[in-house]
Amino acid sequence: MLHALIPVKSLDAAKTRLATVLDARQRRDLALAMLADVLAALAGSPFVAGVTVVSRDGAALALAGEYGAGILPDTTPNLNAALTHGAHMLAAGGVTSLLVLPADLPLLAAPDIALLVGALGPAPAAVLAPARDGGTNALVVSPADALPFLFGHGSLPAHLAAARESGVAARLVRSRGLELDIDLPDDLLELACASGGTAAQRLVRRLVLAEQAACA
């Protein structure tokens, strides 16, 4: 059984590197729109048996409930501790394979999830989707507690090293839906100009393209 676990930080502190182009309310709205896109993609995948959002933000947990996802209030000190706590709870409940996704992948779609699942070998195994900055934008592990969670700067090589040390067979997969996360102003324009009409794209097109040159 594959279960998805999505960590969401406080929306009041979301996407601070976009503060030069978006105000606090706009950044909060964008974070919620991207979370909705991720939840919608997961809901559309036949490979995902369940979804849990771990957060201390009430609006994020409320949105998760609207999509039928489980909610796990976060009382841990940091992201990796929250994921570890969530993974242990899910494993105790019978989850055998875990998909960890950030909440800022606005182009994520069901085929991206199928790509991750299709690359997963026999346990113990892991599949990782690299981020552009050397981080990890998706992690599938089987069993659910096969690897420590090492998200943050340089997490991709850290996860790969942990897999080697633990005897976990790890594979990499790449797709645009898994690659494009939103951290910098240029990411907003790329999102706006990409094909599709996700909730985040519709919002960004209203916020960004009204003030910048149209897409080429």
Report on this model:
With 216 residues, the protein is an alpha/beta fold. The chain has one domain (2-181): Alpha-Beta Complex (Spore Coat Polysaccharide Biosynthesis Protein SpsA, Chain A), CATH 3.90.550. Helices cover 40% and strands 18% of the residues. It has eight helices and seven strands; from the N terminus they run βαβαβαβαββαβααα. The chain has helices spanning 24-43, 58-66, 79-92, 110-118, 155-166, 176-179, 185-193, 199-207, and strands spanning 2-8, 50-55, 70-73, 97-100, 125-130, 136-142, 169-172. A seven-stranded mixed beta sheet has the order 3-2-1-4-6-5-7, with helices on both faces. Strand 1, helix 1 (24-43) and strand 2 (50-55) form a beta-alpha-beta unit. Helix 1 (24-43) runs parallel beside helix 2 and helix 1 (24-43) packs antiparallel against helix 8. The radius of gyration is 17 Å and the shape is globular. The model has no long low-confidence stretch (mean pLDDT 94).
